[in-house]
């Protein structure tokens, strides 16, 4: 991943800031992700958290407990760095190294692979995460971004 891709990932995060994030918003986002994954027949697990509280979890056919372990590892990266797990990995690669080689974090607990994205709220910053596991990392990341874009556009149209 080059620095241009890092810039694009940073732009996604700047753009995908929500006006609020309630329990109902977590349900809406989760069911959006489930619907999108089912359309693609994607064998994923989905996790949404606000702080330490899990607000939504779903495992679709073809996923396994291994996906839950990946969710935990990717989510910890978001919690530690405050940006998407994909962006963290991209930043290390842009420096010519890897997260595993240079972060000094336990790879059994942290994974800078695409699929976990910060839930950021206007005026509050990062308050949680939404994570998908089961596809190649770029596809996990893209699925989360697409769902957040839909949630954000539906919030904007509801407010307008």
From TrEMBL:
PANTHER family in the cross-refs: PTHR28255, UPF0303 PROTEIN YBR137W
Name of the protein in question: UPF0303 protein SVEN_2629
Family per record: Belongs to the UPF0303 family.
SUPFAM superfamilies with a match to the protein in the record: GlcG-like
Stored InterPro entries: PduO/GlcC-like, PduO/GlcC-like_sf, YBR137W-like
